Amino acid sequence: MLSRKALTVASLSTLVCSTPGAVAQEAFDGAKFLEYSRTTRDNYISTAAGMAGVIATQNRPDQAKCIDRWVAENSANGFEPALDVMRKQPKFHPLGVLLAVLQKSCGSFKY
After folding, report:
1. For the chain, does the N or the C end have fewer beta carbons within 10 angstroms?
2. Confidence bin at 48 (pLDDT 50/70/90)
3. pLDDT at 16
4. Pair 79, 67: CB distance under 8 Å
């Protein structure tokens, strides 16, 4: 069985490798992310949140349910809570922003 650290690294690697080329560059930040189409942003956020939920299922099932609920509640509005933070803090990486937003809503990812 894979360790949590290996699963986290694999999840993050999948995100970096499966999104547009700019993601792999150091210059990728919230400002660049906000330039993407809504479909691209929605796919990125739903995939990243989904992976956080998968990791949470192995550690805190109640947190996984909260993450699933957050995705369901925010998908129609384009994940506005995360985008709002990116607009206010455009120099941070979108994944870091999303994890901070999820942590605020659903609790710490320290397992």
Report:
1. N
2. very high
3. 53
4. no
